[in-house]
Structure formats: C-alpha cells, structure tokens
Write a structure and sequence with these properties.
transmembrane; 78% helix; transmembrane helix; mainly alpha; rod-shaped; membrane; 102 residues
C-alpha cells in the first residue's frame, strides 16, 4: 500500500509540476504578446504623428507665418500642394530671353 501511495504521490507531483510549467509558459507568452503589441502600437502612433506633422501641421504653420508677413497664395491641395501652379510659373519664367543679361 505504501508503494502504491508513493507512486500516486509521484504521479501527482509530476502532474502539478507540468501544470505549473504550463501556466508559467502561458503567462510568458501572454507577456510577450502584450510587449509586442505595445511596441507595434508605439511605432504605429509614431508613424501617424510624423505623417500628420509632415503633411498637415508644418505646412499650416508655414502658411500662417507667411500670411502674417503678407505673403498669400492659392490654397494647396492635399499631397500635391501647388505643383501645377509652380511648374506653370517656372515654365513662364524660362520661356523668354533674359534681356537683363544680354
């Protein structure tokens, strides 16, 4: 009876050790998933902030500063800005001869 009790205790100890290791592994996996999700969230928020700053906040600040100095122009379109107007002005400037240099 003692040998059977000892084997039963050994089996119980083995089962509880596996249970503890399994729970520890699951806790580790959950912590790693949380850490990875946090890093991805921070990187995504950083990308959103850089994009917002580059395409919206900085041009708005520059337009406001230039308007305060009396410089006005056509409102820019998203992503392309005033490329058509600028290229038309450059083409017009380069179309004729420079009489002041002749």
């Amino acid at each position: 009876a003692a040998a059977k009790s000892n084997a039963s205790n050994s089996r119980y100890l083995s089962f509880s050790l596996c249970y503890i290791l399994y729970n520890s592994l699951m806790a580790f996996v959950a912590a790693m998933i949380t850490a990875i999700a946090s890093v991805v969230s921070v990187l995504l928020l950083r990308a959103v902030w850089v994009t917002l700053s580059c395409y919206f906040l900085t041009p708005m600040r520059i337009r406001r500063t230039m308007a305060a100095q009396g410089v006005h122009g056509p409102p820019p379109r998203p992503l392309v800005g005033n490329l058509r107007q600028v290229s038309a002005l450059v083409a017009e400037a380069n179309a004729g001869d420079m009489t002041s240099l002749s």
